[in-house]
Design a protein that fits this description.
The protein is an alpha/beta fold and 574 residues long. The chain is built from 19 helices and ten strands. The longest helix has 53 residues. The strands form two sheets. It has a six-stranded mixed sheet, with helices on both faces. It has a four-stranded antiparallel sheet with strand order 2-1-4-5, with helices on one face.
Length: 574
């Protein structure tokens, strides 16, 4: 893991080296104060060398001005380096998230993923900047202080620094407890983010059902978990700081008592003793910095561990040797295909079907039968657990996923639109399309006339998930997007089931236009919309129970006939 962390320093090698050099100089300047203090107390003041006293003071002031500039460099450029490293990690994570399969998002909430990308990486950034700098400055300051104090009185120095191992033992003992507590705290923070993201996204549903109290209850549950986790973290942190502070206080007691005995016995000069008192305080500061670094180290490491967890998730990968599928004609075949989601019963059970080029193939049947799964397997969103899926006679594993998806257009019931302009949302179908092609796609989707009634036309921003559009308008916009893509294979997954009859007729006209000349897989809720399909398959329990044209299935008087007759009676108020 350390190698993976260090890799992010490489692009910023120059800044890092200068930052470390500046830190080294800061540590060297810090030791000059006790040296000058000793010289003044032992030589300059007793000998009344006022000119040298002033020069020593001016020299020390110059050094402090230099240290001020060095500290500015460390704080500014060091933080800039940390932020750049954070941005690179965030970019790497985003690119990796884009490559992860559907199954990853089935099992991970958006808010928790966002937490890892924001607050976790912020702590990693702080560690990346302050970690090496604090270690270098503090370590050198402690070593130089020890070496310098030994030149004054080695025995007194050894007595004082005998407390340092005790500090280290306490830090090591409490380290694991702090690490576990901070990890639990991060998990609870991610839970709050997930709950908040869900509640805000569903605020309209909450208001419609007047369930604000329920959402607050859910949020407070996560908030309570956060408080409990933070309390544990702060308890571990409090134990750590109180114990280490107590040990550092002992330093002053030892200096006072041991130094007093040494001074009483004439083993140390008064000026040297005063230098010890000054120097020990200068020693305590870097020691405390090293101790506090343990806390920063724990938060940074746990953040990086959570970052690595995401980065170690296996991305979608083409089979070695997979080739571009090229120009697709539209023949689709399932051969004995089975599929199951994680820890569940089979969704598809040795299912076989064939769809010829240009055909409209409808899938009907009860919910949970496997219809949507079939639609997800064709673009290779999931891997079938058994059997083969072929497009134009080429098995999906032998062709690249991007080339397959390039040839497939999908219109779903749940449309996702970006918080951008109408033009940008249509252009998502083909980013290099011209303005004329965008308008033509909108016309064919029966949405152009509505767009032109808007004040900003195609530049109108439609809000998050297209909130400023009606259901039918969102659906037609998604159809325009597919028109622009112009794929040879089309998947319609209950594209009109959530619409009223008038809107459905308008949408169906656009869909009929869209389906011309394409191989079309239709998942239909309203059977009246697929009466003219070339082939209809009734799917239940992952198997095809009936298959044929509408008239043939009605004559069989099986499940399809029952479903159709039931819908017919309901639509006619019978």
């Amino acid at each position: 893991m350390l190698k993976r962390f260090i890799r992010y320093y490489r692009p910023h090698k120059a800044i890092f080296i200068m930052d470390m050099l500046a830190s080294l100089l800061v540590a060297l300047v810090g030791i000059m104060y006790p040296i000058i203090t000793r010289e003044m107390l032992n030589e300059l003041i007793p000998n009344r060398e006022y000119r040298m006293i002033v020069l020593a003071g001016i020299g020390l002031l110059v050094l402090y001005i230099i240290r001020m500039l060095l500290n500015f460099f460390i704080q500014y450029y060091g933080h800039v380096m940390g932020v750049r490293m954070q941005a690179e990690m965030r970019s790497d994570m985003f690119r990796h998230l884009e490559k992860l399969p559907y199954s990853f998002y089935d099992n991970h909430e958006t808010g928790k993923i966002m937490s890892r990308m924001t607050s976790d990486l912020m702590d990693v950034s702080e560690l990346a900047h302050h970690g090496p700098e604090n270690l270098l400055i503090s370590s050198i300051s402690v070593i130089l202080s020890f070496a310098y104090l030994c030149t004054i009185n080695a025995w007194l120095t050894l007595i004082i620094f005998a407390c340092v191992p005790l500090l280290i033992l306490i830090a090591v003992f409490l380290r694991k407890r702090m690490r576990d507590a901070f990890m639990e705290s991060r998990v609870s923070t991610a839970q709050i983010n997930a709950s908040l993201e869900s509640s805000i996204s569903g605020i309209r549903v909450t208001k419609a059902f007047t369930n604000a109290e329920k959402e607050e209850e859910k949020f407070q549950e996560g908030n309570g978990m956060f408080v409990t986790a933070r309390r544990k973290a702060y308890k571990a942190m409090g134990q750590f700081h109180s114990m280490t502070s107590f040990i550092t206080d002992i330093f002053n007691v030892i200096v006072l008592i041991a130094g007093g005995f040494f001074l009483y016995n004439g083993q140390i000069l008064f000026g040297d003793y005063s230098t010890f008192v000054v120097s020990i305080n200068l020693c305590l500061s870097p020691v405390m910095t090293l101790i506090n670094f343990m806390e920063q180290y724990q938060t940074g490491v746990t953040g990086f561990e959570r970052f690595v967890e995401i980065m170690d998730e296996k991305p979608e990968e083409d089979t070695p040797g997979a080739v571009d599928i090229g120009e697709v004609q539209g023949d689709i075949e399932f051969r004995n295909v089975s599929y199951r989601y994680e820890d569940s019963n089979p969704v598809l059970d040795h299912l076989s079907l064939k769809v010829k080029k240009g055909q409209t193939y409808a899938l009907v049947g009860p919910s949970g039968g496997g219809k949507t799964t079939i639609c997800h397997l064709i673009p290779h969103f999931y891997d079938c657990t058994d059997g083969e899926i072929l497009i134009d006679g080429k098995e999906l594993h032998n062709v690249t996923m991007s080339s397959v998806r390039r040839n497939i257009g999908i219109v779903q019931q749940d449309i996702y639109l970006f918080n951008a302009s109408i033009r940008d949302n249509i252009l998502y179908g083909r980013l290099d399309a011209t303005e004329e092609e965008v308008i033509e796609a909108a016309k064919r989707a029966n949405i152009h006339d509505y767009i032109m009634t808007l004040e900003n036309g195609y530049d109108t921003v439609i809000g998050e998930r297209g909130v400023r559009l009606s259901g039918g308008q969102k659906q037609r916009l998604s159809i325009a997007r597919v028109f622009l893509k112009n794929p040879p294979i089309l998947i319609l997954d209950e594209a009109t089931s959530a619409l009223d009859n008038t809107t459905e007729i308008l949408i169906q006209q656009a869909l009929d236009e869209l389906c011309k000349g394409r191989t079309t897989i239709v998942v239909a809720h309203r059977l009246s919309t697929i009466k003219n399909a070339d082939e209809i398959a009734v799917i239940a329990d992952g198997r095809i129970l009936e298959q044929g044209r509408h008239e043939e299935l009605i004559e069989q008087n099986g499940m399809y006939a029952d479903l159709y007759n039931l819908q017919f009676r309901m639509e006619n108020g019978a």
